[in-house]
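Q: Could you fold this chain for me?
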Amino acid sequence: MAGQGVVAVALTWVDVSGITRTKTVPVERLEHAAAWGVGMSPVFDVFLLDDSIVSGRYIGGPTGDLRLHPVLERLVPMAALPGWAHAPALRYAQDGTPHPLDARALLRRETDRLSALGWSVRGAFEIEWAVSKDGGDGFTPAGKGPAYGMTRVTELAGYLRDVLGALKETGVTVVQMHPEYAAGQYEVSVAAEDPLGAADTAVVVRETIRAVTIGHGMAASFSPKVEAGAVGNGAHVHLSLWRESAADGPANAMAGGSGPYGMTAAGEAFAAGILRHLPALLAVGAPAVASYLRLVPSHWAGSYACWGLENREAALRFVTGAEGERATAANLEVKCLDGAANPYLLLAALLAAGRDGLGADLRLPEPVNVDPVGLSDAERAARGVEPLPSSLAESVAAFEADAVLRDALGEAVADTVVTVRRGEIDLLGGAAPERIAAATRWRH
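A: Sure. Below is the predicted structure, expressed as structure tokens.
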């Protein structure tokens, strides 16, 4: 690192409210940090988005200490922050036992549980963000071009070039980037990885975008609702389930089968498990009061608990890929999620839901290949299509009632998730949409 001009290493973790927190060590102290860790209070797990603090049964108060240990195999120099490197951190108690709220360790546990059953998962986050002309409290779109229009690329061509260049230099494989629907909004898609890599990359992508944006004299918002009257930012997750075959190598369970649109029975069961647990999953994947300003019908946010082939209004969109590459490309996109989520905690919960589907050999209902809002109440009832929770309070109630997810995540995590969510409901519940958007805009 020192030979590459790095002078500082940011050790990061993501708290329960979805905010990336950090401690920094000079590069000369990296070896010591790897061996013995860096001190950090456990209380950050009960910080709310405005940095106020609540207390749960397991976390709260000024006492105690944790040790942050950098994950050295994921250590990368940050091209957008010259002289800086980034490493995700694992958190341990001083006696060396894993901290029960360490979401990265929790995600590793879930991948290990699937591995014990003979399965692995590949995943990736789509990152959406909106660019403001300056760094003030308000939001002024940095471009005037139409949704998805080339004009919007041309307006910020130098900036977008620098985003792509910095991501490449940092080791991120970008699949595509495009202007999105809302004014000043863009999206970047990256290559699929193992779940731990996907979550690490999601953090690196956002911090790279943030740094490049600030370097251009602008500001980037990843909030689920940047402006009260505009389309919000999502953070869709793409997942595919894989099994290693001694004869044929890895095989994608989302393709090559006799199930819906070519899914295998296992791929269908994995998807059905996620569908079953979607209301509770929102307490992890759409975790802000502002999330429910975004999660509304006819906005491609996936506000109904249903699935469909290439249906951007369904919470689960099944993507086959082009003819000829389906064996590797077929995947499930979970659309009802946003950037206020902790990516490690979210992926752990998604894997647990999919694993439950595998264990119960669940089957998917009939696909919905229209906008669900256009179906009558009777049609939706007959097809089992339910609206997802319309408030954070509703999703928290669903999470509390979901024994599978609570057991998979552990009681300390489950209690802290509920405590933090209730704290943010007390903070912003019932506030006007404009106030919610303003309070959330620059926090994630």
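A (continued): The longest strand covers residues 119-132.
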